[in-house]
Request: fold
Amino acid sequence: MQTRHDWIVPVVAALALLALPAVLTPYTQDLVVKIAIYAVFALSLELLVGVTGLVSLGHAAFLGIGAYVTVLAAGDSGGSIAQVAPLAVLAAAVYALFVGALSLRTKGVYFIMVTLAFAQMAYFVFHDTKLTGGSDGLFMYAKPSWGALNLDDKRHFYYAVIVTLIGSYALLALLKRARFGHALAGIRVNEQRMRAAGFATFGYKLAAFVIAGALAGLAGFLLAVKDGAVNPELLSWHESGAVLLMLILGGIGSLRGAVIGAIAFTLLKELFQLEALLGPLAGHWQMTLGFTIIAFVALLPKGLIGLRARMSGAAHG
Amino acid sequence: MDLPTFLVQCLNAVQYGLLLFLVASGLTLIFGIMGVINLAHGSFYMIGAYMAFALAPYFGDWFIAKLLVGVLLSALFGYVLEWVFFSFLYQREHLQQVLMTYALILVFEEARSLAVGNDVHGVTTPDWLAGGFQLGGLMSYPWYRVFASLACVIVALGLYFVVNRTRLGMMIRAGASNRDMARGLGLNIKMLYRVVFAGGVALAALAGMIAAPLSSVYPGMGGSVLIICFVVVVIGGIGSITGALIASLLVGFVDTFGKVFFAEYSGVGVYLLMAVILVWRPEGLMKRAY
Reply:
């Protein structure tokens, strides 16, 4: 599976992303930023789903907590990135520690339901309390900055997002290759055997869960800064479902798949909402998206990455 | 809190819990027997509620007849649905099932918006169930809520009878305890799946129809019920109908009294209950026992 030239495509893609603003229109630059943020989010979930084999349906909670904490910490003045971002990441990590400690006691389908329920709990906290603006959410009056880096500037923000994406990708790629990553993969394949081999699997899983939550919190920080506002829907299970969808669209089991999935999902969503292309159907994009997903599950169980393997397989066979 | 208020709240809690049970029992059965995690289950509740709204003009005061027709229609719907969308999913991973059912939610919600629009609708209670009875001096309790509770109890008893005392129930129990062995012994597992799924859909839709006059009928009503039912299933233990019943009532009480005592944080109470139970019993109160 791992080939020697595995690094070429990501590196070329990263260089291309860094050079892109020179040619992008504001709309497409915004779209790239959105995709990149969702790619970070999807990557964080890939550590759980693809590497460790833990299917979480509550991952949006960490994204939402990161986003809310960003807005709250930024306050009226915007604050310093060096304070706001770590705070957002930390908050998400702490909630991940709580959820992980409880939900990792369960397995399989139970785990899916429990993570979903805990995400919903966070959703209600933000939805029902006054401090967080209730169902309307909060506005961000000023964006954080740090030295020369001012996130209010679109170009600055673009680079901040792209660098975060590259950093996250690199971090996860390193984690996967490290002893830690191999232990997680071992847990995915056969947890019992890992335990017999002397690994404290619960600790490994919890660590993975917290890292994934923290990274999702970082994505939440970026999302809050991008939109300049947060609302409880960020934590809703639709969002958790969407990010799982990205992984499956791209193909589970590779970091690249998570990024491809984020691209494919965001573009599909934009496409289905294009009135010029679909006419009156654009108002009902959920229907089109729904049927696309169904066709996808039925026909392409291994994701877009699997498509290539299948095509080359067909060519050889 | 004086006694009549307390009693009214208890009745509300039981009624809410029983309604949850109707939805959750279908969810837990479908999971226990077919191994499918069905996110679209809340949509069936929503569809039931909208059916109560759409069928109302044709039935007038024939409320029971409306419920029966609705149950038949939804069972038929579930039967076809299983055939078209689920029959090829059983060998796949849970993840793919999650995706498929997630997509179905999107489709159902849009279909609902195309068919009836996005407005909030009310469904009137039938005339013969209007009004209520006096409780203490000042409180009155609506007859319709009494009817709702009774209807749920009857369905629950029926379910108990079917699962424990009939041939179909025997097959259901066999399928739940060991799918492959049941198939090996010559059980028509495909047919069983289809029937169970249809039954689950009908139960959820019935709950929606009963709930329609109590709450209003609104978009997104399926989502909130689905999540609460997940909590119920997790607390009760996946695949256990008895567990679902106990858990539904527990959740009903925690939610109702949470709203009375901690109005602002009432949404969280149920999830805290789940957290506590998970610490105590990670596999739910009843682990796969009928």
Chain A touches chain B through 43 residues (CB under 8 Å). Chain A has a mean pLDDT of 87. The beta strands of chain A are 138-139, 145-146, 149-150, 229-230. Residues 31-240 of chain A form one domain.
